[in-house]
């Protein structure tokens, strides 16, 4: 069994109100030196067997059709414990 992680983030040109709210709160809470904050989503998928190229291609399809909105979001996929990763920017 392998764990595949899909990180979904708003594209850089898309406004991120939640990230801005967190960024604005940091100085009020005594935290400094943070230039920007972007909020995203993380999905962990447990897959049967090994994380083969075919299985990862299927995860890319899942990320494109269900986990992200390709119009406003990018996603990155990596296998936990592995050095190989894939990033999708539409």
UniProtKB/TrEMBL annotation:
It comes from the Bacteria. GO terms for cellular component: cytoplasm. Pathway: Purine metabolism; IMP biosynthesis via de novo pathway; 5-amino-1-(5-phospho-D-ribosyl)imidazole from N(2)-formyl-N(1)-(5-phospho-D-ribosyl)glycinamide: step 1/2. InterPro entries: PurS (IPR003850), PurS-like_sf (IPR036604). Its EC number is 6.3.5.3. One of its GO terms (molecular function) is phosphoribosylformylglycinamidine synthase activity. Part of the FGAM synthase complex composed of 1 PurL, 1 PurQ and 2 PurS subunits. This is Phosphoribosylformylglycinamidine synthase subunit PurS. The gene is purS.
């Amino acid at each position: 069994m392998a764990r595949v992680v899909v990180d979904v983030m708003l594209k850089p040109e898309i406004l991120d109100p939640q990230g801005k709210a967190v960024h604005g709160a940091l100085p009020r809470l005594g935290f400094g030196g943070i230039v920007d904050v972007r909020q995203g989503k993380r999905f962990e998928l447990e897959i049967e067997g090994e994380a083969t190229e075919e299985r990862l291609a299927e995860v890319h399809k899942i990320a494109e059709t269900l986990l992200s909105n390709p119009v406003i979001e990018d996603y990155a996929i990596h296998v936990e414990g592995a050095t190989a990763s894939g990033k999708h920017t539409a």
